[in-house]
Amino acid sequence: MPDTRKQGFHTVETNLEEMEEKIREHRRKIVMWILVAFLALSIAAAVAIVYFQLKKSKVLTNLCDKMYLCLKDLQLLCNRGERVGAILEIDG
Question: What is the pTM (predicted TM-score) of this model?
Answer without folding.
Answer: 0.49
